[in-house]
Automatic annotation (TrEMBL):
Record's bilayer topology term: Multi-pass membrane protein
Function: Part of the tripartite ATP-independent periplasmic (TRAP) transport system.
InterPro entries, A to Z: DctQ, TRAP_DctQ
UniProt source species: Vreelandella lutescens
Protein name: TRAP transporter small permease protein
């Protein structure tokens, strides 16, 4: 399958990657500060006591960003776990309708989740909700990231549903489930 909004999904993947790099940088910096303190104590000097306040809080929000921004990309590149033990044994003409049904269910759930997350972010912005940690991060920021990630997944599901639906209506016997191997051959 060729997704028309693949560049958008890749942008989400880059955002997820940036979140992971930021997590690694924060943790590495915190470990480096602790290592410097330990070395100073080892040679008989006093600690510098430098640390980044709220590293775990920032890392947890960045992990949410990495997870949700990467949803659409992993879906279109067939990296999500799928249990196809039963339906893989069905004829193509039947299997395509199972695919369409599964995509409809996933799309409805993701659209409802996106709608709810947008409402939650709007409410957090309206009431100036902040996190209860050391940093008091405005909660609408991670909530918008969640909504964007799930919204991108909904768009990818809609595209996949459109393609599977066309096959199901036009020529169901030609349906072949896409795999990550097929995806690698396309690039």
């Amino acid at each position: 399958m060729t997704f028309k909004f693949d560049k958008l999904y890749r942008l989400g993947a880059w955002g997820a990657a940036a979140c992971m790099v930021a997590i690694c940088a924060l943790i590495a910096l915190q470990v480096t500060f602790r290592l410097v303190d330990a070395l100073l104590v080892l040679v008989g000097l006093s600690r510098l006591g430098i640390s980044i306040t709220g590293v775990s809080e920032m890392a947890s929000y960045l992990l949410v960003g990495a997870t949700f921004l990467g949803l659409a990309y992993t879906f279109v590149h067939h990296a999500h776990i799928r249990v196809t033990l039963l339906i893989s044994r069905l004829p193509s003409a039947v299997r395509v309708w199972f695919e369409v049904s599964g995509l409809i269910i996933a799309l409805v759930i993701s659209v409802l989740l996106t709608y709810g997350l947008i409402g939650l972010a709007r409410e957090s912005l309206q009431y100036n909700d902040v996190s209860s940690g050391f940093l008091s991060i405005p909660l609408w920021i991670p909530q918008v990231v969640l909504a964007v990630g799930v919204g991108l997944l909904a768009l990818a599901l809609l595209e996949a549903l459109w393609m599977a639906g066309r096959i199901a209506i036009r020529d169901p016997s030609s349906f072949r489930e896409a795999t990550s191997i097929d995806d690698n051959e396309a690039h």
